[in-house]
């Protein structure tokens, strides 16, 4: 159950972020960076919680979180550039 939450919660956050960007509910750039920041914290948590027996899953989760963060930051940048063009 914990692994399910650790994998799906950041994905749900990304979907929420994209929906908020698409509906223009962010008032400025600072709130648009909150969800990527949460995903980076998840990445840090998965790396900190590494022990010898579960090092590989933690590394995989960290890579997953970093990919999600890049995706959300890219979407945020595209949203910002369209809004201020």
Description:
The chain contains 4 helices and no strands. By secondary structure, the protein is an all-alpha fold. The model has no long low-confidence stretch (mean pLDDT 75). The chain has one domain. The longest helix has 29 residues, at 55-83. The termini are far apart. Helices cover 81% and strands 0% of the residues. The relative contact order is 0.17.
Query: Tally of extended strands?
Result: 0
- SSE order, one letter for each helix or strand: HHHH
Helix content: over 70%
Low-confidence stretches: none
Radius of gyration in whole Å, from Cα? 14 Å
Class from secondary-structure proportions = mainly alpha
The number of helices is 4
Overall 3D shape: elongated
User: What about the largest sheet?
Assistant: none
The fraction of residues in strands falls at: under 5%
Mean pLDDT: 75
Q: Could you say how many structural domains there are in total?
A: 1
The end-to-end span amounts to 44 Å
Topology:
Blueprint: H1 2-22, H2 29-32, H3 34-48, H4 55-83
Name the descriptors:
elongated, 4 helices, 85 residues, mainly alpha
Summarize the structure.
With 85 residues, the protein is an all-alpha fold. The protein has helices spanning 2-22, 29-32, 34-48, 55-83.
């Amino acid at each position: 159950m914990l692994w399910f939450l650790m994998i799906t919660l950041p994905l749900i956050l990304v979907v929420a972020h994209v929906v908020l960007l698409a509906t223009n509910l962010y008032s400025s750039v600072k709130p648009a960076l909150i969800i990527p920041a949460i995903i980076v914290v998840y990445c840090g948590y998965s790396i900190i919680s590494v022990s010898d027996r579960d090092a590989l899953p933690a590394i995989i989760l960290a890579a997953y979180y970093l990919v999600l963060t890049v995706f959300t930051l890219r979407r945020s940048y595209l949203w910002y550039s369209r809004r201020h063009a």
